[in-house]
Design the sequence.
């Protein structure tokens, strides 16, 4: 009985994952497998269109840019937080997490006010004389990326602070005492030990960016359609459930491949990362 104790304890969580995650995803993908055009017919339909390929590529661009910027900003912020005194660290963590207390839609609407033609940023640029007329910033790829970075940097900071906190100060001091420069200490000590957090943060941000709907819909509109908004259009506007299932299946495959690739990268960079 002891031999199966672990399985018994894990069975409720396993059942929940199967019922609420695996079965719905399997049902969605099964819709594409029964298409009269053949097993790969729906996917050939998707990739034979230049517009649909552009939507997929644009989604990749936005997700990669969001992930790269969030990694850079989040790592710098997390490093400063982890090296701060305990009393200041608590304040900085609260400030970093504070945006997560409001909903995604609310934070996205805030960027409508900031980036609109009569928004805060346009009014400021005209006031200081940078531009004479409002600049179009909404419904561009840049607006979507900026808003997504704002959404996901707090998540990246939370992941990285815990990892950086676990790096012993003795290692950093030993590196300095042995003659390593600050850049060398960062490259040879801090960065390898922070690799697990970087990988986890990158996977979380990339998959969330790739599957995001609300922010691209509000700030990108139809001009900057991504996979999430395209899926909504096919399902709720065109009522093309087979097409929507195909888009969903492609998003699932991309997410799984991303996790596998990032795990392999983590294993190569740091064998202790996985």
Sequence:
């Amino acid at each position: 009985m002891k031999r199966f104790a672990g399985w018994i304890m894990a069975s409720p969580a396993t059942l929940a994952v199967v019922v609420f995650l695996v079965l719905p995803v399997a049902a969605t993908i099964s819709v594409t497998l029964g298409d009269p055009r053949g097993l790969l017919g729906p996917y050939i339909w998707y990739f034979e269109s230049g517009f649909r390929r552009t939507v997929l590529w644009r989604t990749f661009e936005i997700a990669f840019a969001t992930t790269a910027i969030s990694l850079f900003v989040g790592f710098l912020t997390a490093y400063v937080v982890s090296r701060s005194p305990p009393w200041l660290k608590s304040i900085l963590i609260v400030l970093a997490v504070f945006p997560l207390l409001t909903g995604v839609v609310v934070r996205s609407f805030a960027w409508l006010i900031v980036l609109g033609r009569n928004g805060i940023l346009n009014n400021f640029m005209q006031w200081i004389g940078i531009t004479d007329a409002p600049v179009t910033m909404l419904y561009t790829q840049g607006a979507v990326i900026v808003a997504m970075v704002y959404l996901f940097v707090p998540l990246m900071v939370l992941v990285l602070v815990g990892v950086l906190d676990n790096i012993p100060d003795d290692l950093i001091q030993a590196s300095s005492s042995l003659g390593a420069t600050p850049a060398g200490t960062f490259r040879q000590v801090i960065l390898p030990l922070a690799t697990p957090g970087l990988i986890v943060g990158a996977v979380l941000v990339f998959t969330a960016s790739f599957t995001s709907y609300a922010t691209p819909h509000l700030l990108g509109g139809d001009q900057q359609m991504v996979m999430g908004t395209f899926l909504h259009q096919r399902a709720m506007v065109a009522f093309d459930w087979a097409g929507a299932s195909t888009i969903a299946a492609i998003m699932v495959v991309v997410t799984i491949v991303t996790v596998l690739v990032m795990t392999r990268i983590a294993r190569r960079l740091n064998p202790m990362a996985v």
In short: The radius of gyration is 23 Å. Residues 50-82 form the longest helix (33 residues).
